[in-house]
Amino acid sequence: MSTADKTDAETDGSREQKSTVDNHMKKALHNDDEGVQEAGEGRSELSSLGENVADSQVYTATSLSVVPKENRTKTHPLVLDWAYGINQTLPVLSLQDEDRLVILYICAHIAVMYDHTSNAQHLLQGHCSPITCLCASEDRRWLVTADMGRESLVIIWDAYTGIPVRTLFDCHPEGGVSALALSKDSKYLATVGAGAVKRVCIWDWTDESDSPQCQVDLSPKYGCQNQILFNPSDSTQLVSNSSTQVLFYNWERGHLEYSAPEITDKTFNMVLGSLSQSIFHYDSVQALTATSAGNIVLWDKQTESVSSQPIVRKAMKIVPLQKEAITVLTLTDSFIVTGDVNGQIKFYDGNLKLINFYNEFSMDPIRSISFSKEKPSTISLGYPKDCTLDAKPFVIRNFVLSTTCATVVHVNAQRHVPQTLLKEHPEPLEAVACHPKQPLVAMGSHSGTIKVWDYECKEVVCSRVFQPHKQIQCITYDPQGFYLAVGFASGALQIVDACTLQSEGKECLQYSQDSITHLTFSQDSGYLAAADTGKSVTLLRRCKAGTQEIWKYQGRHHSHYKPIQDLLFGVDLDNNQPRLLSLGMDRRLVEYDLQNSGDNELLILSSDRIEQSAVPTCMVWYPPLTPENFLLTASDLYKMKLFNATSKMCRKTVFGPSYGSPVKRMAILPASNDDDPNSRYMAYITQDKVGIQILPVDGNPHKSFAMICHSTGVSTLAVSYDGRNVFTAGGQDCTVLSWELNLSSLEASAALGGKDMLPFYNLLEGGRDGQLFREMEEYFYYCQLQNQDLNTMETRLVSTRIPLADVPFLMRALGFYPTEQELEDMQNEVKFSRYAETRNYVTDIDLEEFIKLYINHRPASGISRQELCNAFEVLGRADEDGTYTIDRDELLELLQARGEHMTEEDLAECFTTLLGISAEGGSCTESQLDGLLPTKITMRTLSTDILGFSAATQELHQEHAHDV
């Protein structure tokens, strides 16, 4: 089983485990109409259920507990250690009890229970897509999260243990969940679909059914319902709203219906504004809706209705409560609470009379307000006075508020003191870098903020907001840890002190108007190179100006005609001088001549094309595991290649990690003083995953592991100075995740994958017992016979090897048709494989070596229909029907003049064989070829009539490409 298969199996196992609720636990949760009880209640009733219940963590837990880091089980090579950041668009919930100040918030696809008292996190992992909504039961025992991705999930968590007790799979397959809510008794869960079909479902999550109690489809004209709420006094009533429409629901006996009372500017001849949130009144059948115009819409039942009939509500009036837009509307005890765009929080009584307000916090627009489950003290000493004429003590619960600028504040109502719990990056976080000698990690975002964290103590060491340049794109420390370079989207550069983040010399260096994408220091910290979206490389040199060191402009070169993928400094082993290389989407590896570049110039030493069809994505210096110095590159075709650092010759090609998208960035882990010096590892990221790879690379899939880190895309990664942690920046999700490495787990996984050739046999279709392996053996033995003369009568010399010159024929016989350059790479890979040790060339190859060569060099996926379509769109012309065609003569000319040129004889031989006109090796004249091929060649003609691909084969290749 491959690593990818094992990962899928583990995922399936976790899904099955989470979707099954233990019968004993459900008896503890479910108590007829009383709803969900706390696990501490009714223990005597449950004691007879057996030891399994008594041992259940969910059953025995009685309070919030964050598992200490040292006690956490580490079974995977990558263990999520800490989540930096917050999704400021979602609410923050207070889980505070008498002993701990705990909050719940969302960080990408992870729910974070943060214990501010002990500065610890409990990370709730289960979603593969960004979490879009969350809620908690009134007693804060049960937490619910949902996402909006493919195969969306709704997960109910036990807040006391952090264990998922129920998972609803694909309950809204059209597009996930946009809003959810728990009833006051915690028994029922309401979910609202986010897809084209706006479906509202009511679930009894404590039973085993995978179907909702009732559901109803909403009309698309009502828009996306971004909030839903149960009536606290009657769980059969709900309210939801979009930005334009409020909906009221009634349900009983498995039937759910809704009403959509009209409300517009014309209803009361005043500006309504967009709708923000709705609540039920705590003391009547009324409901209230807040708007962006500072109004409150009051809903009430139309007439005195019969008690058996559902309540029908209509808008009775609009109350102009304030001038500022209301962003939050909620309840606490006997108060109606609002939060607005000016950061003010106001408390009203049931008649919307202002009782008190908080406006001295200088806050940003309020996103959420969540009150503690702990009731306020009955002793009113210390509470501030309200703003009424009676000036009574204003006794309320402590609460937590969050803002749209990623700030979370706890307010002690008795002391009237705000306490900032979190202040994170409110805009995309693209940049992360680790200090080379200390446990520090720096993070930079588009808000212009850099924060440096001590990732062992989980504390902010220093921070700075850069003005006027914002949108930090990349940052990097120099190898000595003295400087931190910052690159901006404006093309500006700043080099600051790594400890204080203050600039010592010129504040801003501007040599480009294009966004900086890569920054790298030389090993001696004497040079700083920057690559930008203008496909240019800029070089700065550190020099002395009197007693001060400054960074001087050395030169700039527009060295690529497509975007630069990576930028790297190295060391010339012959003279110990720095080397600078850049890698572009134009498939060129460029090395710069630093020694001969004068003032205001940057010369190119060499420019080599290292790929034919693949696009290189990144590069890194290979650690000294061999006598030679190598450069390791990755490409979009799931291949990794080793290039000789001096000659740029491709010396090895291996099948790289294949986890849905190609590797986009790599970093070699520092060598550990305690471990074997030949035991090295590499961290990498793909489009949405972070992984770890055992070195040396050889194509064994069991030596690699990856898991989702940022489902909306990961921008970059950084490795700690001791190689124990990897940090990934999520870009648009405004988060950085810290991953603790468990290398022994990865080694165990590799060992379980099999020794020697077993992992490679399993990569062959059918394995070692399959038809492909038997064909390989037969072709291999045939080559041996042919080299000893098929017709000889002499005793044959038994050998396990064949000449290297036979490899191309063997590859083609197996259906793999490499280009001439690929064949040369194969020859060089084998030929020079032992040259550094023996100074001799290898001229033959055995079957096992050939199998590895075949597996590592063959395409990761077949030719898909889409690739053929793209080729015809580039080379052909569209006719009146929009079908792309290529002129026959033009196609023949392209094959003979572009790429690896084919001679006219080769061309004739190929076409006659493909068209079945003559046996293999036959030929025809050009005039005969013109008669065989149509004047206009379509994609269907080429794929079906000439190449012989069936439609089924093309679809299969296309699916395989998606799987990889």
UniProtKB/TrEMBL annotation:
Residue ranges constituting the Anaphase-promoting complex subunit 4-like WD40 domain according to the UniProt record: 436-522
Cellular localisation: Cell projection, Cilium
Record's keyword terms, sorted: Cell projection, Repeat, WD repeat
InterPro entries: Apc4-like_WD40_dom, EF-hand-dom_pair, Quino_amine_DH_bsu, Quinoprotein_ADH-like_sf, WD40/YVTN_repeat-like_dom_sf, WD40_rpt, WD_repeat_EMAP
WD repeats: 422-463
Recorded superkingdom: Eukaryota
Keyword Signal (UniProt): no
UniProt name for this protein: Cilia- and flagella-associated protein 251
